[in-house]
Design goal:
The complex is a heterodimer of chains A (171) and B (587).
Chain A (H helix, E strand, L loop, with lengths): L1 H14 L5 H16 L5 H12 L4 H30 L5 H8 L12 H31 L1 H6 L1 H8 L1 H9 L2
Helix pairs in contact in A: 1-4, 2-3, 2-4, 2-6, 4-6
Chain B lengths: L10 H35 L3 E9 L4 E10 L7 E13 L8 E13 L10 H4 L2 H15 L14 E2 L9 H25 L2 H17 L5 H55 L1 E2 L5 H30 L7 E4 L9 E4 L9 E12 L7 E11 L2 H4 L3 E7 L2 E8 L6 E12 L3 E2 L5 E4 L2 E11 L2 E10 L3 E4 L7 H10 L5 E10 L4 E6 L1 H76 L5
Parallel strand pairs in B: 4-9
Antiparallel strand pairs in B: 1-2, 2-3, 3-4, 5-6, 7-8, 9-10, 10-11, 11-12, 12-13, 13-16, 14-15, 15-18, 16-17, 17-19, 19-20
Classes of the chains: A mainly alpha (171), B alpha+beta (587).
Chain lengths: 171, 587
């Protein structure tokens, strides 16, 4: 329940932040990498660094991460299949062999079918996802954004920060 | 309005995060390395790998492991080995390629086969991973040698139920009975078609007239001659019928002989239902010792097959199960490259270990291991192992350099005290005492040649109390209780998927000859019992058929003979009377 409230808070916090729709969408796309690919891998350290260093919505990144984690779990069989096809493709054998025997690169675990499949999927999905999210955020803000901001539901959810403080100190 | 691309003020917190990460690594690297080593080791061996402490000294390329325990993948409460201390010299640079290159390991205080408090098997319980699959395969391989236990313990010979429908004599008798009836009807019809009655009556009437005729009565003489011709023709027909009857009777007699053959077949079939104990020496050896002799082969084969999976020949990409995590593990594909380092290489290991650690004078041994690698084609030399000591000589070589891998191993270990064990199927417990064991193993591609031998000079026998009243138990006990030597040899050869197993021991001949003497009478009695049972089932059918055939035969032959006699008598009388009247003999 707490996680759900946090997620809704993040969603509204990001949607009503001062960032542009592009910044929010870019943050969510970077967050989607964290959610779609297995978390503890070297490439995700780079993604996290990009999320922190680039002028994109950090809240959007956290939101994208939270939203795409279940998607990642659901699509793991697809990622496994994609990775299998790519890693065992004869035409790519030379590339993988070179990468595998290059320092540091193997630490990314690119030779794991799920890691490679999910990373390729996330890369391919990132561009359309960015444009769709940017359009959706812009439409939201010009249509129902202000009404939502004034709604009792929005105020209740955002007011639950009091609950967060309570969570920090509860035994 | 321009939007900045970089958030420079975040560099500071990111660096702080990086420093925190480094501190955490410094604090927990040993724990993480220990955890990962035990996890990977457990996955590879198919049994729990435990480490008391592990210290990484990366700047100096050293790893110190204390309290290593590897459980046995086959036995629940036994360790494969324990080591007090292992010191490894690592190449640090290849770690950046996720490659572990160990130049040298010094292992001290190795102990083998020590007991453990908890069940350390993993692959045997889960059946997962490469180790699980290999374990299942070797178990299935070993199960093909399940040898029926000798049924000697009670001395009884069991007999399966005899189904009358499976006896061939009964349908043969039924068919013969039908043929006899058919022959009888055919012969009766043929006899009726002879129409002998009018011929005989006419000849009798002619004879009567001829008795009162004179020599000049030419009409009577002609009539007599015609009657004689008719009688001769009738006799020819009866003779033809007689031949037919004789042929038919011979066939029915052959049918009766066929019933005897069918009875013999039924005896043989019934004998096959007897569960007779084998009285041949080689089979006794296999039954007594094969179940125990297969285990060492199964275990060596398990490790050989594991080595083949983890150390495959060639340089093709290799897929293996990925790391366990909340997400799907997937598969890790390795891409070996010519002239590059293998993913794992242990160049050299010096081993120091104890045998009989619990005894007053434990014996210290030394061994070496070289070239243990995940990519033999890259390393270019086979893996070799050797160990020597006062009562030990062992060596192994895993040559996976070419397409067809060749794995060989040999060991002779003396002074091992094996636990007493129950001999399968016989009421005896054998305590082999201190034995010398020998193992030879060669797996060339898919062809296996292996030998396992146990030799002891001070075996002790104990009798199973459950068989105190068994004749066979007494017999075997008397046979073996005076034997103090034990020499068992098991040989395995042929294609790996279905090799031939031969087991012999010095007990085989002694037991076999005594069994043959005693059980021979029981076997004969059981066979007689089976014959009596077959007889009781088929005599009810065969007896009436035999009687029926005899009846049909005698009835037909009597009928023919009777009519032949009447024809002969009339013919003789007519010819006699004609001679009296004409004074000369008729042609």
């Amino acid at each position: 329940m707490f996680a759900l409230i946090k997620l809704i808070q993040s969603l509204f916090g990001a949607l009503h932040s001062e960032g542009t729709p592009g910044q929010l969408a870019a943050g969510m796309v970077l967050g989607s990498f964290l959610g779609l690919t297995p978390l503890f891998n070297l490439h995700n350290a780079l993604i996290f660094a990009a999320l922190v260093l680039l002028n994109v919505s950090f809240a959007g990144g956290l939101l994208g991460w939270a939203l795409f984690v279940p998607v990642g779990f659901l699509l793991d069989p697809l990622f496994d299949w994609i990775g299998h096809r790519l890693l065992l493709a004869e035409s790519l054998g030379g590339l993988w062999t070179s990468l595998y025997n290059t320092p540091v690169v193997p630490l990314t675990n690119f030779n794991n079918t799920v890691v490679l499949g999910s990373l390729v999927f996330a890369l391919l999905a990132s561009v359309p996802l960015f444009f769709v999210l940017r359009w959706a955020v812009a439409r939201y803000r010009v249509t129902i954004g202000e009404r939502v901001r004034q709604s009792r539901f929005y105020k209740t959810v955002m007011a639950s920060k009091v609950y967060n403080v309570y969570k920090m100190f509860r035994p | 309005m321009t939007i900045k691309v970089f958030r420079w003020r975040a560099v500071g917190p990111l660096l702080v995060l990086f420093v925190i990460g480094c501190v955490l690594w410094w604090l927990f690297a040993d724990t993480i390395a220990r955890h990962e080593t035990t996890k990977v080791g457990t996955q590879i061996m198919g049994a729990k790998v435990e480490i008391q402490s592990l210290h990484l000294d990366l700047p100096n390329g050293k790893v110190l492991i204390r309290g290593l325990t590897i459980a046995s993948p086959h036995e629940a409460f036994r360790n494969l080995l324990q080591a007090d201390e292992l010191v490894a010299d690592l190449d640090v640079v290849p770690l950046t390629e996720e490659k572990v290159i160990i130049n040298r390991i010094a292992a001290n205080g190795l102990r083998f086969g020590t007991p453990r408090a908890t069940d350390g098997r993993v692959a045997a319980k889960s059946g997962e991973g490469i180790a699980g699959r290999v374990l299942a395969e070797t178990k299935a391989w070993a199960s093909q040698f399940q040898i029926p236990v000798l049924q000697l313990a009670t001395g009884k010979i069991s007999i399966d139920s005899l189904d009358p429908r499976r006896l061939s004599t009964i349908p043969a008798a039924t068919a013969l009975s039908a043929r006899a009836d058919s022959a009888r009807r055919a012969w009766q019809a043929a006899f009726d078609s002879l129409r002998l009655g009018p011929t005989l009556d006419s000849a009798s009437a002619t004879l009567e007239r001829l008795r009162h005729a004179r020599a000049t009565d030419l009409a009577a003489l002609n009539e007599a001659r015609q009657a004689l011709d008719r009688l001769k023709r009738a006799r020819d027909r009866v003779t033809a019928l007689d031949r037919n009857v004789k042929t038919g009777v011979a066939e029915l007699r052959a049918g009766l002989a066929g019933l005897d053959s069918a009875r013999r077949r039924d005896y043989a079939f019934a004998r096959s239902l007897l569960k007779l104990p084998s009285l041949e020496a080689p089979e006794i050896g296999a039954a007594l010792f094969a179940p125990g002799a297969i285990k060492p082969f199964e275990r060596v084969l398990y490790y050989a097959q594991l080595a083949r999976r983890y150390m495959p020949p060639g340089l093709l990409p290799r897929a293996s199960t990925g790391p366990s995590r909340l997400r799907r593990a997937g598969e890790d594909v390795r891409f070996p490259k010519e002239h590059a380092l293998p993913a794992f290489l242990l160049r050299s290991a010096e081993l120091s270990f104890l045998l009989h650690p619990a005894s007053a004078q434990p014996q210290r041994y030394a061994g070496h291991l070289t070239g243990l690698t995940s990519d033999p084609a890259l390393y270019g030399r086979p893996t070799s192992f050797g160990a020597t000591g006062p009562q030990l000589a062992a060596g192994a070589m895993l040559n996976h350099l070419r397409d067809i891998p060749v794995d060989t191993a040999g060991a002779t270990v003396g002074g091992i005290t094996l636990p007493a064990f129950q001999l399968p199927g016989v009421p005896l417990r054998l305590d082999p005492g201190a034995v010398t064991t020998q193992l030879g193993f060669a797996l060339n591609g898919d062809t296996i040649h292996a030998r396992f031998g146990i030799r002891s000079t001070n075996v002790r026998w104990a009798r199973d109390s459950g068989f105190t009243n068994s004749t066979i138990g007494d017999l075997i006990w008397r046979t073996v209780s005076g034997i103090s030597n034990l020499d068992v040899e098991a040989r395995l050869s042929g294609a790996l998927h279905h090799p031939d197993l031969a087991v012999r021991s010095n007990l085989d001949q002694a037991i076999a000859s005594r069994l043959r003497a005693v059980l021979g009478e029981q076997v004969a009695a059981a066979e007689k019992q089976m014959r009596d049972r077959v007889d009781s089932l088929i005599n009810d059918k065969v007896g009436p058929v035999r009687a029926r055939v005899n009846e049909v035969q005698s009835q037909a032959q009597a009928q023919v003979a009777q009519q032949q006699a009447r024809l002969d008598a009339l013919q003789k009388q007519l010819e006699q009377r004609l001679r009296e009247l004409t004074g000369f003999r008729l042609p």
